[in-house]
Specification:
The protein has helices at residues 3-13, 18-34, 99-105, 122-131, 361-369, 374-387, 395-412; strands at 58-59, 75-79, 94-98, 136-140, 150-154, 162-164, 167-172, 177-186, 190-199, 204-213, 218-227, 232-241, 244-253, 259-268, 273-282, 288-297, 302-311, 318-328, 334-343, 348-357. It is of the alpha/beta class. It is globular.
C-alpha cells in the first residue's frame, strides 16, 4: 500500500474536521513532492530511511493499551496519537485540549501549533502532519508553578507495518514552571513524532524524553523549542534500543537571557542504531547553552551524535559548552560523533569536545581488588557513566529513570559484559 493509499484508507475510516483534513492534505502534498530524506542529505548521512520509501505502511492507532508507565505522581495521560481522550481533571493552571477539540472551539492554542521554527521540521514533519489524526495541545498559565510532572505516555501500535504520528505542543506562559515527561515505548511500529515547546518570558521548562524501543521498532522524533527572554529550557533524553532511533532537537534562543541545557544518554544494544542530532541557535546576545550527551554502544550497535551550535552575528556575550562522551563495548560497536561550532560573533566563550573509549581498566582493577566479580564491576562503571546526565533531575524522577536505564543495561548488554 502506497502512502497515498494509506492516507485515503485512513480518511475513509473516519472523516475529519474540514480544517484538519485540509492541513493533512497540504502536508501530504509537500511530503510526496520531497520524499523521505536520503543518505545524500548531510543531516541524514548516517541514518537510512530508504527502506520506508517502498514499505507498505498503514496509518494506525495504538490498537491496544500498553500499561507499562512511569510510576510517578502527577497528571498522566495514555495518549493514542490517532484519537486523544483527555482525563477529566487537570492541574490548576494547566489547559489541555485535543487538536480536534481546538478546531471545533477555535481555541487560542490552535494558533500556536506549527509556529516554532515553521517549516524547519522538514519532510518528516510534513509526514507527521499528514497522518496525525489528532494532537495534544497543552498551555500553562502565566505565573503558574506546576509541582507535579505532566506525563504523556504515547500508546504505540505493535504492528510492524503501522505508521503512528504523535504530535504535542506545550506553551509555558510567562514566569511559569513546569516539567513535561514524554515517553514512547516502541513495540514494533514506525513512530514519527513531532513536539513543539514555547517557553515565554521567564518560564522554566524541564522536558524529559524517554524512548524505550523493542527490537524491530523504528522511531523518528523531532522537538523544536523557542526560548524567550530570561526563560530556561532543560532537556533530558533517554534513548534505549530499537532497530532505528533518530532524535532531532532544535533550540532557538530568541531573546537576551534565554538559556538551554541539553542532557542525553543513549544505549545502542546489539544491532540497534541510535542517531542524535541537536542544533542550538544563539539568535540573541546574552544567551547561554550547555550540552552533554553520553553513548554506550554494544555489540554490532551504531551510535551517532551530531551537535551543532550556531552563534549569530549579533549574538554577543554568549557562552556555550558542548561535550559528547562514548563507550564502545565491543570491536564491532561503532560511533560517529561530530560536534560543530558556527560562530559569527566575536565576544563569545564557546567550547566543544568528544571522546570515544573503553571502560577504564584501572577502575575495573580497583573494583576487582575490592572483591567484585568482573561482570558486577563492569556494570557499576557503566551505570555510573550512563546516569551522569540525569543528575540535575528531581530525585523521584531521577530514581525512576536510573532504574529504567540500569535494567536496560542489565537485560540488553549482558553479552558484552564478560
Amino acid at each position: 500500500m502506497s502512502l497515498q493509499e494509506a492516507h485515503a484508507a485512513m480518511r475513509a475510516r473516519e472523516p475529519l474536521p474540514a480544517a484538519l483534513a485540509a492541513r493533512q492534505d497540504t502536508a501530504l502534498t509537500r511530503f510526496l513532492a520531497a520524499g523521505f530524506p536520503s543518505l545524500s542529505d548531510e543531516d541524514w548521512r548516517y541514518t537510512n530511511l530508504r527502506p520506508f520509501k517502498d514499505a507498505a505502511l498503514v496509518a494506525a492507532n495504538a490498537g491496544s493499551h500498553y500499561a507499562d508507565s512511569i510510576e510517578l505522581g502527577g497528571w498522566r495521560i495514555d495518549a493514542d496519537p490517532a484519537r486523544l481522550e483527555l482525563p477529566a481533571e487537570l492541574p490548576q493552571g494547566v489547559t489541555a485540549i485535543s487538536l480536534r477539540q481546538a478546531i471545533e472551539r477555535d481555541h487560542p492554542l490552535l494558533a500556536r501549533l506549527g509556529t516554532v521554527s515553521p517549516g524547519a521540521a522538514g519532510r518528516m514533519g510534513d509526514l507527521n502532519a499528514a497522518f496525525a489524526g489528532d494532537a495534544l495541545l497543552i498551555g500553562v498559565a502565566d505565573g503558574a508553578r506546576i509541582d507535579q510532572p505532566l506525563i504523556i505516555d504515547w500508546q504505540l501500535s505493535a504492528e510492524s507495518d503501522a505508521l503512528v504520528s504523535p504530535r504535542l505542543l506545550l506553551v509555558a506562559g510567562a514566569r511559569s514552571e513546569v516539567t513535561l515527561v514524554e515517553r514512547r515505548v516502541g513495540r514494533g511500529s514506525f513512530c514519527n513524532a513531532v513536539t513543539e515547546v514555547i517557553a515565554e518570558d521567564g518560564a522554566q521548562v524541564r522536558y524529559v524524553e524517554v524512548s524505550r524501543e523493542r527490537a524491530q521498532s523504528h522511531t523518528v522524533a523531532r522537538i523544536d523549542i523557542d526560548v524567550a527572554r530570561d526563560a530556561r529550557f532543560d532537556a533530558f533524553s533517554l534513548a534505549l534500543g530499537g532497530t532505528l532511533t533518530r532524535n532531532d532537537v532544535h533550540v532557538r534562543l530568541a531573546e537576551p537571557g534565554a538559556s538551554v541545557a541539553l542532557h542525553g544518554t543513549f544505549v545502542a544494544g546489539p544491532g540497534s542504531h541510535i542517531d542524535n542530532h541537536t542544533t542550538i541557535d544563539h539568535v540573541s546576545p546574552d544567551t547561554h547553552s550547555v550540552e552533554n550527551y553520553r553513548g554506550i554502544i554494544g555489540r554490532a550497535g551504531h551510535g551517532v551524535f551530531n551537535g551543532k551550535v550556531i552563534v549569530r552575528k549579533d549574538a554577543q556575550r554568549i557562552t556555550s559548552a558542548q561535550s559528547n562522551d562514548n563507550l564502545l563495548l565491543d570491536d564491532s560497536a561503532e560511533i560517529d560523533t561530530k560536534p560543530e561550532l558556527q560562530i559569527y560573533a566575536d565576544d563569545v566563550r564557546c567550547s566543544h569536545g568528544a571522546t570515544i573509549g573503553r571502560l577504564d581498566e584501572q577502575a575495573l582493577f580497583y573494583l576487582r581488588s575490592r572483591g567484585l566479580d568482573p561482570s558486577t564491576a563492569q556494570r557499576l562503571l557503566l551505570d555510573a557513566f550512563a546516569a551522569a546526565t540525569l543528575g540535575a533531575l528531581a530525585p523521584n524522577l531521577r530514581e525512576v529513570l536510573v532504574a529504567t536505564l540500569t535494567a536496560f543495561l542489565s537485560d540488553q548488554l549482558s553479552e558484552n559484559l564478560t
